[in-house]
Structure formats: C-alpha cells, structure tokens
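Re: export button greyed out
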Amino acid sequence: MLNDLLLRMRSLFRRKIVEVEMDEELRFHFANQVAKLVHSGLAPQEARRRARLEFGGMDQVKEEYRDSRGVTFIETLLQDIRYGVRTLRKNPGFAAIAVLTLALAVGASTAIFSVVDAVLLRPLPFKDPVRLVWAMEHFAFGPSTVVSADFPAWKDRNHVFEQIGAFGGTSGANLTGAGEPARVTVTKVTTALFSMLGVQPVAGRAFLADEGKQDQEHVALLNEALWRNRFSADSRIIGETIRLDGTGYLVVGVMPASVRPQADVWTPLALDAEIFSPHSPRWMMLAAVGRLKPGIEISQAQSDLQVISQQMDKEYPPQAAQFRAHETVEVIPLHEMLVQNVRSLLLILLGTVGFVLLIACANVANLLLSRSVVRGREIAVRAALGAGRLRLIQQLLTEGLLLAAIGGVLGSITGLWATRILRQLIPATLPADVRLDPRIFGFSAAIITLALFLFGLIPALIASQTDVNETLKEGGLRLGASPGTHRLRGLMSAGEIALSLILLVGAGLLIRSFLRLTEVDLGFDPNGLLIATVERPLTAAFDSQQHSAFFQASLERIRNLPGVKEAALTQRYPLGPPHNATMMLRVQGAENFRPPQPITVTEISPDYFHVLRIRLLKGRTFSDSDVATAQGAAIINESLARMVFGTREPVGQHISFTPRPSPWSEVVGVVADIRDNAIEERPAPEIFVPYLQQPSFSMTFVLRTESNPLMLAGAVREAVQGIDKNQPLSDTTTMDEVIAKSVALRRFRMLLLGLFALLALLLAVIGVYGVIAYSSSQRTHEFGVRIALGADRRDILNLVVRQGFKLALLGVSTGVAGALILTRFLSSLLYEVGPRDPLTFAGVTILLMLVALAASYIPARRATRVDPMVALRYE
Amino acid sequence: MPERRIDLPQGTLDLLILRTLALEPQHGWAISERIYQISSKVLFVQQGSLYPALHRLERKGWIKARWGASENNRRAKFYELTALGRKQLEVEESTWRKLAAAVAQILETT
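Workaround output, generated via the alternate export path:
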C-alpha cells in the first residue's frame, strides 16, 4: 500500500517527469511496432500508417494511462480551481456579491453559534457538572429559594445527594484597611460548597468544615478579580486581616473569578447559626445546590426533598402555617437554572441566522444559475468535446466550492469578531465566555458545506443537463434557460421574500414592543436626576438613630451644593435594585385582612415625592414634624389603596406592617402609582414611611440638578465623606442611565433581530431584482416583437412588473403563513403587542410588496426602452 | 495478420503479463509481442489496455519498473516480477487452471 501511495504522490508532484516518461515509453513501443512491420516486408511509410491504426489514437491511450495513475480526481480538481479563480477574477462584481453575501450569513451564524455554544452547549466549568442540581421551594408569595430553617433537614435527611451546599445573604460591605474605602459584595456560602463544585483556590485554601461556627475566628475568601485589582495579586494577603463594615476577617484563600456564586468576598455559613432554627425570629432565603448520587434521577430528588419539607411543617410554630401552605419543592439541573433567561432568545436568534443563511444560499444559487445560463455555450461546447455530466458537475461545483471557501473563511473571521458584541447575551450568573474551540470551527465548516450543497449542487445539476444540439444551434445570445430552471429561480426568490418577511415581522414586533415601552407613563420625571447610594456599616457600633443623623446631615450638605436644585432621600429608587417586600400588613378594623401579594415598604425623606414629581392624589405628604417621637405616618400608593380599601376613603385609616403589638400608623396621603420594579411591570402596592420614623442603614440620595447630573457626583462624595471619611458611595448614576439599563437587553435584542431582518430584506431584494432583470433581458426579443406589433411601452412595463408582483405575492403569502406559526415563539419577548399584531403584519407585508415591486420596476423600465429594430436584429 | 483475434476475457490480462514476466524482465512492446507469438497470433493486447494494466500492477506492488537499454540500445522501461508478484502469479495460475478445467468439463459433458 505504501508502494501505491508513493507512486500516486510521484504522479501528482513530479507530473512533468511522469508525463515525459510515459511519452518515451509509448514512442518506444510505437517504434518497435513499426520496425517489426518493416521487417515483415512493408514499406516504412505503410508500416507507420498500419502501426498508428493499430494503436488507435495516441492521446486516448495516454488518457487511459493517466487515469490508471489514480490521481485524476485531484489533478482535475486543481485544474478546476485554477480555472475557477480565473473566471471569478474576470467577474469581480459577481464574485464580490456572492462572497459578501456568504460572508455575512456565515459570519452571523458563527457569531450566534459561538454564544449558543458558550451558554447552552458547553458544560459548566465544574467537576462532573451533569450531576449538579438547583433545589428550591415555591411558596404562595414571591421568591423561589430555600428557607434557611429547612436547609439542615435537607442536608441531613436526604437520600439522594452526595453533597448539598447553600449560599445566600448577599450584601454589600465597606471594605476598609488599605487605600480608599471600597464597597464590596459579600456572600455567605456553606463551607463545602466550593469543594462540591470541584473548584480549587488560586492561592491559600478553601474553608474548613468548622469555620463560620459561632466561637470560631472570622475568615474570608477573596475573589481573584478583587485580589488582582486591589491587592496586586500579592499572596502575602493570605493570613492578613481585612475589615468588612469594621469587623476583622482573616483572609485564608483566593478563589478564581469563574466560581459561582459571584461575589467579591465569601464568608462561611455554618449550620449552627440562629437562622437555621424553625423558631428563629428571622430566617434567611438561601439558594441550594446539590450533587446527585450516581444513578439518582432529578424527579427522585424532588420527591425526596418534598417529603422532607412536609415533615418540617410540623416543626414550625403555628404562625408559620400560613406561609408554609401549598409549599412545593422543585429540582432542576444547575445549568438549566443558570441559562433559563436566555435560552429562548438564543434559540430564536439561531433560527434567525439560519433563515439569513438560507436566503443567502438562495441568492448565490440564483447568481450561479444566471451565470451558468450565460455560460450555456461554454458548457455545451465542453459537453460536445466529450466532457461527461459528472465531469461538468465537478467543474461547476468546484467554482461553488471556491466561493463557499472564500466566503466561509471571511465569514468565520467576521463572526468571531462579532462575538465580542454578542458577549452581553451571556447571563452574568453563568461562568462562561465565548471561546474558540473546535466545535465552533466545525460548525462553520458544516454550514459552509451545507451552503455549498444548497447553492452549488442545484445549479450544477441543472446547468450540466444541457442539450448540446439545441444550445449550439440557438447561437450565442438567446441561450434560454429552460422553463423549469426559470420556475425554480422564481420559487427561490419567492422563498427569500417569505423568509425575510418572517424575520421582518419578528423584528417589527420587537420594535413595536420597544416603542410601547418608551411610551409608558413612568409616573415620575426622570430628567436631570442624580442617584447616589450610601450604605452604612451594619454593626452594633451604629444604631439606627445614628444612621438617620448621618443621613440628615449629609442631605443638608448636599442640598446646599451649587448646581443642586432639590434633593431627597429614599431607601429605594424607582427601577433600582430589588427590595424586600413584606407579607405582613394589618389594617385596623379589618383584622381578617391578609395581603394577596407582597408589599414594598420604602423609607423616604419628606420632599421625595416633590423631587421626583410623583403626584399626590389625596391628603398630604410628609413634613418635618413626622419624626420618631410623633405619631406614625404612612403614605400609600393608588394600587395599595385600591387593594386594601376599595372604594373607602383611605386617608385617616390606620395600618401596620410590623408584628404586633406595634403601634398603628396613620395613612396621611395617597400618591399616584409609578413604574417601580421594571418599566414593563404593572405598579405593585407600596407603602412609604418617613425615614426618621423607620431609619435604615442604606439610603439613596436623589438630586434634581441644574445641568449634567454626573458632574455633581464628586461633590456628593466629598459632602458624604466630610461627615464620615471612611464612607464610600456604592453606586452613583443618573436616572436616565437607570432607565437605559433597564431596557438595555430589550433594546439590544431588538437591534440584533432588526439587523438580521434588514440583511434578509436586502438579500431578498437583490434576489428579486436578479430574477426579474435576468428574465426580462431574456425576453428582449419578445418585447421587440411586441413593440413592433404596436404594444404600448406601458404594456411592456405591466408585463414585467406583473411577473415581479406574482413572485412577491407568492412570497408574501407564504411568509405571512409562516410568520403566523412562528411568531408565538417571540411571545415572551413582547410587551403589550400580540404575536399576531395586525398592524405589524400589515405594515411588513406592504413594505415587502412595495420593495419587491420597486426591485422589478427597474428592469421593467429598461425593458420599455427596447428599440424594436435592435431587439429583432438581436439574433 | 490473422483475421481471428480473440478479445481477452476479463482479468486474464494481468495473469498473462505476470506469466510473461516470470521468465525475465521485459519492456512493454516485448510483453505484447510475446503474448501474440506464444498464443499463435490469437491474443493481441492493445496498447490502450497494456499500459494502464502495467501501471495498475505496479501500484499493487506485483511488478516494478526500471529504465534500461533495449536490444537495439534504446532507453526502454523494463518491468520485472516482485516477490509479491510471483506469489500472486501462483494464485492466479491455479485459479485459472481450475476455472479452465471446470469450463472444459462442462463443455464435454453437455
């Protein structure tokens, strides 16, 4: 076999020598034959003639000899490639359009796929990640987590987990010690969580089993990113003490930034803490991650935990019965939990780029077809000279391959570059990033091959089916495509219209949703607002009165800063980070009242409503006399008033949202609803209270400024640190930015889908134009005859445009049918727009019809200018 | 030239070439000439079949080629049997004999 390979290689690479040798050998044979014939008595001339006859054509023998070398395929391939490059170079316009079209489609597909790969396909970077699951409890009210008091039972009594860990209590803390004080996030994790995930520390060690218990020293793990940025990756930090909100923590190790849960600093959560008792006054909401024992199904784990949680019901005090009613346990794969927000979006985008790819292939196929018709004569000549059908297909396919290869390589490069933009589709909770790996290249190669077969093979099959006689007889110019080819091309461009209509409808629905969103009445005026959050250390050294004194003094200073028109304090600003809500609401005189949904309680300074321009509907706002010693006052929003009091007058009623026997607060006013949690969410019931009566450790300054709000950020920091030099600002931004951020993902996906839809539209227009232009140029002769026989130019125009209209109508109706089926997958991304929104459908349909008609109008105009004399002489 | 030439049955050309080369290395023309002579001018190998066949056998490693001088001192390509080729010849010879005997038997009895 080695022998065989060597000979083949020799034939391929030493082609000249092999050819010369063959020549010599055959000539030697011929000479011998002639000599023999002469010897037998023939005249030399006659002998040569006879020998040549016997030989039966020197070149035929050579061809057969060459075929037996076993490298013909490669040789002709190289030949075809050389020829292909030459033809493409001679038609730079055609080559550029085809390559660009392919590059865009392949690029878009590669980019989207690389994100899909990172988010959906690649396993989590943890040890044996398929066995990792996320377990949670659902209660009648909001959050799906695990109540801390249930966790020890899950941990000790389950039969399904190899290990189970939990984390929670994420909060901000002021990190002090070296340099500027910084605000960091701290998350508590059970000590074995990281080892369960199989994540090793970058430096130092992970937590020990006993750490975090009550009598143990405080220890902490640092995030690698924090360690690099703040401690210059100095491993001497291990063994040092850092201060979080003033309390010392011994740094024992550094964990890689890719570990989850995400935080700057991790502290241990030991199960002897008070929060783990069913009788604790306050529980914590935890997230639980477990590693299933080998062979255990998720459903088994779910029913096991459900049983445990039901057993736990009996161990809680009776008051807890209400919240524990209808509690259910759910266990899902960890990976699914981390990607559930983006999965549908990514699949939609993958489908979208698939459509774009199909359209691009149809376009290039159309281009190749019209070229192969132009080249009909060349192909017919080749066939006449003896080229077999397979050989012709091979040649045509090679040209397609060339286009696919160039377009594919360019596309993959642009695609990989484009993934930088698409990176923001990856949820922050998922430890994944776009990475080059063989799978992505494999995917690109696969779609290029697919594209090649879609646009290369079909034209090649059709073009190679040439009828030599007819084509050569017809002469060079009126080589017509067969009616079948023409129908195929028409169908392809109608298909392009249909696919782009589906994409345009999708994009249109997202755009309409976005417009609806920007029209929403927020209920407050977001212009010129600066937002600066200050979180005080949560330690015993500061009691709540001290907090309120600090905030009051800071507010006084900030209010007097030049450039500040008004300033107020709030515990939570609209569209800001989520906020705890309470299920505890009592109404005087309606003891049986239980709120059907959680209620947000926000502490504010008296002029908050005025600064935000929130409308007061009834009663009064807070005043400076609503202090800690005065009667409790509360202002409720419209939703709460409707929910609790219905048509009754709310002002003057008494409510309470802390356990008895707390004093009642009087409802002194009602304000208008605002969009508080998210622009697309309906306002939720909310209670406002004066911050002096309910002091909080974390407050946000809201400033209405005269000019650019961010210019005041430095002055605000100085004002705050003028009172406490160790106090950092955790978050400084403007309301405009908050709003932009809250719609950022929506905006991004609208732009992305819109971009793809536009690309599809553009390609489809090129397709329709190509088909109509080609067919009307084919009919030049016919038009000439018609005009000569007295047809009006208008008649010709109608004739051509009608053809385009038919294509468009076919494409549009197919597309509308497809869109009606497919847009329901978009439902979750829409806001106040139905997936079958008639306005969008009608608009897009009209747009596409107009565009298609315009694309056929241009060639139609050209057709009307046909000079009958020229057209008839055309033959 | 005799009028009756017989086309070679499929697969026999290889056997004939190998058999011819078993005696001594030969060049292409001599191979066809020898087959022609020994078969009493019945079997005539066309050049168009001979050279591809030689090449095929070379690729299978049954024969190998080298350049040498012919009887009249011209450069010619000589083919010779390899060890592998010799083994192959034995196999093909016995197969052929069995086949021929079987065909003969059938022709005689019917």
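Chain A has a mean pLDDT of 84. The button fix ships in the next patch.
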